[in-house]
Amino acid sequence: MTHRATTRRRQLGAMMRKLRARKGLTLEEAGRLVGVSKATVSRYETQAGPVKWLVVDALCREYGATTAEREAIVSLAKDAKQQGWWSSFGDSIPESMNLLLTLEDEAVQESHFSCVYVPGLLQTRAYSTALQRANEVPLTPAEIERLVDIRMKRQEILTRAEPLKLWAILDESVIRRVVGSRRDMKEQLERLLEANESPHITLQILPFSKGAHAAALGSFVIIGGTEQALDVVYVDFHTGSLFLEKEEELKRYRLAFEYLRAQALDMEASSALIHRASKEL
User: Are 264 and 233 a contacting pair, CB within 8 Å?
Assistant: First the structure.
């Protein structure tokens, strides 16, 4: 199975599990409602095996999914065999990144909080290269270039026909930490200023002056689809990454983002602080 199919099937399975759990049905009960076996419903909720979109559609209707939820999930089922642009990079992309790229390909909006580095979607090539060079596991120049190429290609979701709506909140330490040379960092700050002028990007800085804040969760991304119920939280740790989809988890991260948004500077003041940090380099 291709990487694209694997990741889309994983996303599809997660959505189907979430809808069934929300309805409070067992696998056997769900299968009986649409005339399929318990094993079939279970298979549809895993990463393995093909799916029939008509069965997915029927299950969504029995689960009480909204029209937008059902259409998004059926579309995912119909396209399960399609390959994304990242499939050309082969085994150099870990499974967690495959899933992230698949989720982003379907997303309409993302909410980022970064407390260490500039979010990948807003990084310059020089900044991204410097980060890869700082990896504790030494990478060859070719490996670094390949990873940076993937990140730069990923940013195209911000310039597609219907661009992703991005809301990013950066801790002030992100714009103060010099990654690469001072020239590289100055270029990165200019990129942030440019991004904040975009009609589909909102950028806020959480200043040191706010003291303690709701960032105990660390850096995270809320990846949003056409329906809030289909949201997924992506948390990138030093040793790996997590995808969270349970309603209580989503509620916690949404609340944290709302607190951070309220505490952060507005867009104009944020741009002024970035400009000041750039002048001090």
Answer: no
Distance CA 216, CA 259 (A): 12
Distance of alpha carbon 228 from alpha carbon 205, whole angstroms = 25
pLDDT at 81 over 90: no
Q: What is the pLDDT at residue 1? A: 35
Q: CA end-to-end span of the chain, whole Å? A: 49
CA 195/CA 201 separation, integer angstroms: 6
HEC profile of 222-243: EEECCCHHHCEEEEEECCEEEE
Token pair 């992309």: residue: 93
Q: What is the dihedral of CA 125, 153, 278, 134, to 10 degrees?
A: -50
What's the pLDDT tens digit per position in 94-142? Answer: 666 777 887 787 788 999 999 999 999 999 999 999 999 988 788 899 9
Which 8-state DSSP code applies to residue 83? P
Q: Identify the CA nearest to 157 among candidates 207, 90, 102, 209.
A: 102
Contact 189, 203 (CB under 8 A): no
Q: How far apart are CA 232 and CA 84, in angstroms?
A: 19
Enclosing H/E stretch for 174 = helix 172-176
Average pLDDT across the chain, whole number: 86
Q: Tokens 């642009």, residue? A: 85
Give the predicted TM-score (pTM) of the model: 0.75
- Of 107, 84, 59, 78, which Cα lies nearest the Cα of 231? 107
Task: Please give the average per-residue pLDDT across 48-54, as a whole number.
Answer: 79
